[in-house]
Amino acid sequence: MQTHEGELNPLLHGGSVQPLMLVISGPSGVGKDALLARLRQLDEPFHFVVTATSRPPRPNEHDGVDYFFYDTAGFESLIAQNELVEWAEVYGHYKGIPKHSIRSGLDSGRNVILRIDVQGAATLKRLVPGAIQIFLAPGSMDELRQRLDNRGTETPEQFMRRMQHAEREMAQVAAFDYVVFNRAERLDDAVAQIRAIIVAEQQRVRPRRIVL
For residue 6, what are the CA distances in angstroms to 3, 59, 204? Predict the structure, then answer.
């Protein structure tokens, strides 16, 4: 499905709303997964594009739900077959977006949401400029530090590197269309902001152009 530049919103002619493609990004630990889970609880209709990765699953993560998990050779095979919209190496592991999942979501008429890291969002902006880029930010860097520390999954050296990386990612916010703050204990405020963005974008006189 494509939305061509210059076309008027189908709602003006009694048609159906065009599906949107939203990219939700931000530093690790900011709460992207929690936000998506809350949207599901509220029955917000969307197709979630599951990211492929070569890292092993964390406890309670499931293949095909949280990520598509591959070993390194399997992921490199996807790269060779050009089956990814974009891919990158992050923290020593590959991550990438399968093409088929985006197309199937748009064809279903539902909004498509991607949860990707900041580096991947920058690449996707070049490849699919019609996608809506949303930066999920913490209430403060101290909040982010506490969230990451509560995970308890990293050595002090790994934790320090992740915080340094998060600071670099925060500096990229100007490249996004919207910023949504996920403050501590106020997840529903962030969810409401996402839903408001969706409503506003669906009412554009000339919808964004989506081409894959």
Answer: 9, 47, 11
